[in-house]
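Example 407.
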Amino acid sequence: MSLSLRPVAETEWPDWISLDEEAFGNAIPPHRAELYRRNTEFGRSLGAFDGDLLVGVTAVCSLTMAVPGGPIPVGGVTAVGVLPSHRRRGVLSALMTRQFSDLHEGGEAVAALHASEAVIYGRYGYGRAADGLSVRIPTAGAVFTRHAPADPALRLRVVRPADARDVFERVHAAVLDRRPGLYARTPARWDAVLSDEDSDRGEGALRAVVAEDDEGPRGYALFRMKASWDEHDVPDGELRLRDLFALDPAAYALLWRHVLDRDLVSHVTAVRPGDDPLIHLLADPRALRARWADELWFRLVHVGRALPARRYSAPVDVVIEVEDATCPWNAGRWRLTAGTSDARCEPSADPADVTLPVSALGAAYLGGRPLEALRAAGLARESRPGALRELSVAMSWEPAPWSGLIF
Ligand SMILES: CC(C)(COP(=O)(O)OP(=O)(O)OC[C@H]1O[C@@H](n2cnc3c(N)ncnc32)[C@H](O)[C@@H]1OP(=O)(O)O)[C@@H](O)C(=O)NCCC(=O)NCCS
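Predicted structure in complex with coenzyme A:
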């Protein structure tokens, strides 16, 4: 195999789609392929060619993503696939290495991705930065506590999703910087979110409800609902929640109440942030059946630019020895000096206080991964007693990170 790497031209899109379908073993309906194409930045794609044959692909989306302290540019790595005939011959490694050097030369200081399998990206310096809580809530036991916020001025309006897009866009943009991991959705991204062709309706048609008062919208929920009845003719429908965003706690509670109260629905399923206030709204938190899954992986492509780009929960002054075989420009000692409103990170000749693989910094970057736990797992060391805890506390953040939508 003689491998060459270059961006994939838009005219080569049919080859890209066939590769994607082969790698993932699925069939992409034509309108989904078109949405995928419109969400692709071809200039930021990278194809691996064996002669003329496209055998591997990846791309970067230019995201604006919230991190602790506010939104920053993040390289959203996506569309990773290798033709089955060429797997396990180093194609992905070649693509990842080139992508990092391209990003280092003129792109974002951090990269993020959603992984199809959790074992793939750690070797390239990605750390598991955000978890999704996959929940299944039987509606029968989903009673709220008496302290659930309420506002008599609020009312619900059932809308057709296509008619309320401007409401969704405004609410989502307004809450974007409240949670690390949330990212701005482009018009093409919203087109994909709201697509509701026959082949999108495996979990039922897309439905939506808006919470509003006389001043205007304060939140919305977007979901799919599928009616069914069990063998005793008891309603057993599922409501699959997609988005639930609100400007304030009362609207948030009302929207959750609504999705839990829909007629003929026996259970609601969703992937939520690990600290979803719903956990505290439920009188019986055990009503919520949950399991964890990795949601976002983060990679510091340029440590010196990435660490000052976020804010810190407490002042910290620590020399970090970074281990990074894939991006050697990161390897070495860096002094991170941060207050709660500014931060600096510079190369340092001082002895290291803590030693970390770059993946540990990626895992902690969004504030949801305590470094002490990584130390207990053998992923971090300290030479100055207490230094790791200082860094861990400074990097921690509330609320928990979560992106809410695969890019
Ligand atoms: C995952 C995928 C991109 C890997 O591509 P690849 O070209 O086979 O990967 P490489 O040959 O460069 O592998 C590099 C290393 O990662 C390991 N690796 C790669 N994919 C792996 C997987 N799915 N599980 C375990 N290890 C994996 C390889 O064994 C190799 O390890 P080594 O360096 O110790 O030998 C490819 O198998 C694929 O397209 N899978 C289906 C689609 C998919 O899941 N894409 C990822 C979307 S996030």
